[in-house]
Amino acid sequence: MIKRIDKLILTSFLGPFILTFLVVVFILLMQHMLKYFDDIIGKDLGWGVLGSLLFYFAIFMTPVALPLGVLLSSLITFGNLGEHFELTAVKSLGISLVRSLGAIFVFVMLLTVLAFYANNTLVPKAALEAYSLLYDIKQKKPALDLREGAFLSSIPDVSIKVNDKLPDGIGLRGVIIYDHRGKTGNKEVTIADSGRMYTILNDQYLKLELFRGYNYSEGSSTDKDMMGRQPTNETMSKTKFDKTQIVFDLSSFGLMRTDKKWFQGNRIMRNLPELESDLDSIDRELKVQKLGVYTYERGMFRFHAKDDTLEVPADLKALKAIRDSTAKAKALAGGSPGGTVQDPQPFPSVKAGTMKKGDSLWVRTKKVSDSLFSIPYTTSDFAGALGHARMVKSQLMNFNTQLKNDGEAYRIFEIQWHKILAQSFACMVMFLIGAPLGAIIKKGGLGVPVLVSILFFIIWYLLSMTGEKWARQGEVNVAMGVWGGDLILLVVGLLFLRQARVDARLFDSDFYNVMWDKFKKWLMKRGIMKGQPA
Length: 534
Hints:
Elements: H1 2-33, H2 37-40, H3 47-83, H4 86-92, H5 97-100, H6 102-139, E1 158-165, E2 171-179, E3 188-200, E4 205-220, E5 234-249, H7 272-295, H8 297-300, H9 314-333, H10 360-373, H11 379-441, H12 448-472, H13 478-501, H14 509-525
Antiparallel strand pairs: 1-2, 2-3, 3-4, 4-5
Helix pairs in contact: 1-3, 1-6, 3-6, 3-11, 3-12, 6-11, 7-9, 7-11, 11-12, 11-13, 12-13
């Protein structure tokens, strides 16, 4: 009996789910493609290219379409079961609501695993294919469209104008061609009374057959004098023809594919292992930048802060130790004398303990020092100090800007890492909202369930987008920002499940009237509201 009930509920869920998932993918796909409509129209791409672009973007839409499909189909399924009193019959057999959700819950768990596989494997590949193809489409020239009375300049270094196009689409009247391929201006002109235009060799070349016209050519003479010098006089030639043929290369109108390696660095085209590798690289770059600040501190503050101590964090100490050991190993491999690394000694030094107070060397050193500090400061000294201060300020501002940029890049890649998991888990959250809520509403069809599902989907989408924005700006923790929408709606779903188990009538006015009467009694007992509790 229980297996039959599970089969009944599961089959009632699968139909609406498949239908709603396809509808949601179609709606999201059309909404997404409208942004690139101007880049696609008029490019003569062909159905193969357009089909590939739509297919890749359809896969790209699945992370958002799956949770919405689960939410809507859950509402429809349990709304129908409640509306036709089938849930009441199931409960009369001693089967609880939670148990009746078991079959679909297992299916949604499998769907969550499938969503994770799609987000982690299929979506990055589809995004790479879609956006690389879209980039090539944007670079493609518009289709060859010759209009009456207007110059066609899409062929490189050639301008063509016709007065009339015949109804057959091939015949032309009043043809003018300016050939700029010589890079000398309008010095090659062809005029014809009529002609024919069509493509040949699988649309790779444009062929023009011109009738009754003239070709004008103006330019310097190609002959040289006895000294081998180019004459400066201009030449002019006019050629009359009854028929001539001109062929233009149309290879620039083809769709040229760019190597996909130039697009692979984008975060939406990376899976979890690749994102972890990117995070490690950015984190190391951040530490190198911070270590540079500590390293340059002595050079920036050479006098007034030379005795200050600035503690280096433990992670930067570890990085410095690794870098120093690597540099020492390279130096040893380079063959320094005696097999050891010798510190440079650019200036002669006095051995420690050889100079004592009262010695002649100490007295002479002190006199020189006193004489140096007794010299009054000059304008050049102040200018040098001011220049040094400005340089230090500029370096610190550059360090801060670089650290800020690297930190934002790290958060962006970390957000994408969490999104792959959070969007997959959203399928479970939407099921825990849709199924109990459908059992409470007891309304099937496409009326109330569609409105309620859209409402909760908008809430989830806004919470997710707001959390990602705050996480990108560093205002909240990245994990909390990405997972916040899922966690909030998970709590709401569990509350709906609790109310559905006790057959709460959340959408009946009597339920809220009873709640208000209980609240008034509570206020009267504590003297907050006047009156006697009934």
